[in-house]
Amino acid sequence: MDKLIAWMIPDAVLRAYFCHRLPAAGRRWLERMYFWTDILFERIESAELDLINDYVGGRLSPRERQAFEQHYLITESRRDKVALAKDLAESWAESIEISTTRNWRGYLAWVSAAVVISVSILVVLRWPTGSFNVPIDSRSVQRKIRNSGPAVSPLHIPRNARTVILDVHPTLPTPGEWAVTARVNRNPIFNATVVLNAQGALLVTIPRDRLSTGLLAIECRSRSSPKNMEEFRIEIDLN
Predict the structure, then answer these.
(1) Secondary structure of residue 238 in the 3-state scheme
(2) Does residue 144 belong to any structural domain of this protein?
(3) What are the backbone dihedrals phi and psi of residue 193, each rounded to the nearest 5 degrees, phi first?
(4) CA–CA separation, 176 vs 193, rounded Å?
(5) In the chain, where do the E strands start and end?
(6) Which residues, listed in sequence order, are joined to residue 206 by a DSSP beta bridge?
(7) For a Cys staple, 167 with which of 71, 137, 177, 201, CB 3.0–4.6 Å?
(8) Structural domain count, the chain
(9) Domain-located, residue 127
(10) Residue range 80-136, pLDDT digits in tens
């Protein structure tokens, strides 16, 4: 029963005890119960500590602050408790400030290092081309093809190129999927479904090891309009 009573006492009553805001009968009853149970003893100690921290942290209302100063800070031991709480609060605030400053410095240093590394990588990868407007991977050869007429110049593929990317532009760019096949000197080397992109082109990527010097013929057929079929031709030079 004593433990149940100890838990039923509101925290506001315990805090009011230290500010002399309880009736005399309530103060005497609480003082008699003070040592009866460990639970009530711990709750009263905790309420006192919370009240001190709220005072130091400026979280008390003007009325509560005035009552605390008039009725709690009347003994030297209580004033020592408040002074200790202030010292602890200041030390904690300083440690938080130092930690935050260090974290920001570390973060800024990390960002700076990341930027420097990124720029260095870009310079290393793109410097040999002499321009920052070309693809990073210089091992790919890209060519735009718009028709199959004789105006299409031969495509020279360097030895270090690993892939050939052809931007094939059908005359009637039907949106959706296209069946694309490619042959070199009538030998099949490529067969895939390619989706027409926003620029009206079919990106056909062919590994270099599948190519050989000769005539590359690319047949493109719209899957939604099978009659829309076109063949593109271009000379390939691997030498």
Answers:
(1) coil
(2) yes
(3) -100, 125
(4) 10
(5) 140-145, 155-156, 163-168, 177-184, 187-195, 202-207, 214-222, 229-237
(6) 164
(7) 201
(8) 2
(9) no
(10) 888 888 888 777 666 555 555 555 555 556 665 565 555 555 544 444 443 333 333
